[in-house]
Amino acid sequence: MTFQIKQNDTSPQLEAVLSDAAGTAIDLTGAAVRFHMRRARGAVVIDAAATIVTAAAGLVRYVWVAGDTATAGSYQAEFEVTYADGTIETFPNAANIQIDILADIT
Known about the structure:
The protein is mainly β. It has strands at 2-6, 14-17, 32-39, 44-49, 51-54, 59-62, 73-82, 88-91, 97-102.
């Protein structure tokens, strides 16, 4: 998955359906989700709570805040789920979400 956003924008929000290897949505009832983003192979720049939009359908959202997209470049991201029983699973499992922050013209 590749997501593109312009530098300093806070819209559109990043939404994803968290699913297993077979493509079945993960039930997030009772879970907590965090969004992590880092510069490509670099330091983590975001470690923040994500919103569970529809728990049974595995739908989550990260709402950008001022400063999140201030620096143009390539980033890698993931959603980390902590289930009600304390176990942790990261999505996507086999890769990262590619985030491209495109430079403003002015």
